[in-house]
Amino acid sequence: MPVGSRPRTAARRSCQGACAALLLALAPRQAAAAEPNGQASLDLTIFTQGDEGGDPHKAEGLDYHGVRLGARVRVSDEVTLRASAVGALLVNDDPKPAPPTVSGVTITSASTNTLTLDASAGADIRPDGSGATLSAGAFYHHQYGFIVFGLDFGYSQEVAGGDTVLGTTFGVRAAWPKKRMWDGDFYGWSRQVTYNLMAGVTQNLSPSVVVGLSAQLTRQHGYLADPLNYVVLFDEAGAPRALVDEELPGERTRGQVNARLRVTPSLGTSFGLDLSFYGDDWGILHGAAEPSFEVLLPLDVRLRLWTRVAVQRASRHFVEAPEQAPQYVTQDSDLGSFVSVEPGVLTIIPLGASPEELSWDTRIAVFGFYRTDALFAVGSTAGVSASW
Amino acid sequence: MRLLAILALCCALPACATTRFHERACLADRAAAFDQDEAVAFIRGKIEAAREGALGGFGHASAGGCGCQ
Predict the structure, then answer these.
(1) Which of A71, A110, A140, A218 is the most buried (most CB within 10 A)?
(2) Please, is A248 exposed, middle or buried when counting C-beta atoms within 10 Å of its C-beta (0-12, 13-18, 19+)?
(3) pLDDT in the model for residue A352
(4) pLDDT-based confidence at B9, cuts 50/70/90?
(5) Which residue does chain B place closest to A315, by CA atoms?
(6) Three-state DSSP class for A18?
(7) Higher pLDDT, B66 or A311
(8) DSSP at A267
(9) Between A374 and B5, the higher pLDDT residue
(10) What pLDDT does B19 receive?
(11) Which residues, in sequence order, are CB contacts of A228 under 8 Å at separation 6+?
């Protein structure tokens, strides 16, 4: 046995036991990787969703067209600045008319076309030699009838020679939804506040295996329903008789635990498995698993494949065919029960370096989902980025 | 009891050093990253948060997203 060593098996057992007992914030493990001094990217996204089911009384088809700009610049050895902006146009299907057995109501929508803006900016500070990263960021979202401001803070710490990263993040979102209802009634602006705390640990188990464990707790309060959603009430014969507003509690506590695994037996090749389990006090249970595979092709082209499978149990407030409206009721299919399959593929193609010492690459991703309640979608993102 | 647990953890953490610096090439490779691409992660996060009752993803620092639909 080499001088200065100790039985690694016993040490690893105590390490794994200690790590399993502690769940703190998940920090970006990429801190250990060499990062470029700067990166700028431009991506175009198109996405179309079809509706052959879901809520039978609501048109849920839409087309999404988005443009994303991103930038990350290391301004010093310790400070990196980052920013992104996404502008998008959503074209929603025209709303379905009221059921013919319901009289005296008109179903409107705020607009079939919606412009959205998401903007974020932040800074990461890594004091030299400390193994710590302090992060702070701001977020803004704008669309007709919905405005959001947010702040995020994070702290991570490398320990055990960098094989273990502990960290925590805290975020808050303050939103102002406009209560212009599905039937055109207007009740002014409301408010919604979200607090999110995430904690986790990343651990290198071997030169080729890394795992991450994290837990999230989210607390929301305010107006949490969708003003454009309505609920269909039925008579004893099962025919629609009236439409009423969606009503949901003004509080929601949500929790999710995540586990992530990457096995990288050689450079450019990895096998991954991501798991999540979610529950909230609205009664929703949700589990997801995503196996993935990445391989390095000739000419340094990277190919990544994944398939996410999710199973959701409906909220207890979800009622398919109520005769009377309880205190809280929704027919939003996104809060219902379904199984969702979400495959995807991503290709990253290096384009070489320019005389200005910029390294360029392009990426193309195709993804989509299919839900067992017959909602489905397909989308694609294409982009180019430069690093220096 | 809580203090003992913390002390045990502090003693155990140095044992979590499982790789030497020169062994981390695969771990530092882009293929080993949990999140592959910011643009793809953004749109996937939006879709999952809007179309499911859960938080979406496998650990977002900004979970809760924009809250929009």
Answers:
(1) A218
(2) buried
(3) 85
(4) low
(5) B53
(6) helix
(7) A311
(8) T
(9) A374
(10) 80
(11) A109, A110, A181, A182
Side-chain-side CA neighbours of A82 within 13 Å: the count stands at 17
What ipTM describes this predicted complex?
A: 0.83
Q: How far apart are CA B61 and CA A167, in angstroms?
A: 11
Residues of chain A with pLDDT under 70: 1-35, 109-111
Question: Closest Cα of chain B to A101: distance in Å?
Answer: 29
Contacts of B68 in chain A (CB under 8 A): 116, 141, 143, 146, 148, 175
Give Cβ neighbours of residue A170 (< 8 Å, ≥ 6 apart): A152, A153, A154, A195, A196, A197, A198
3-state helix, strand, coil in chain B (%, to 5): 55, 0, 45
Contact A133, B42 (CB under 8 A): no
Two tokens at A82?
A: 């980052």
Q: 């105590």: which residue's tokens?
A: A14
Q: How far apart are CA A9 and CA A7, in angstroms?
A: 6
Q: Are A159 and A166 in contact (CB under 8 A)?
A: yes
Tokens of A360: 């360029």
pLDDT band at B7 (very low <50, low <70, confident <90, very high): low
DSSP secondary structure code for residue A99 in this structure: P
Contact yes or no for B31 and A161 at CB 8 A:
no
Q: Name A208's Cβ contacts closer than 8 Å, sequence gap at least 6.
A: A263, A264, A265, B26, B27
Q: How far is CA A373 from CA A51, A56, A234, B2, B48, in A?
A: 9, 10, 21, 48, 15
Q: What is the pLDDT of residues A18-32, one digit of tens each?
A: 444 333 333 333 334
- Residue A238: per-residue pLDDT: 87
Please tell me which of the candidates A34, A45, A290 has its beta carbon nearest to residue B43: A45
A169 to chain B, closest Cα gap in Å: 6
Chain B residue with Cα closest to A191:
B67
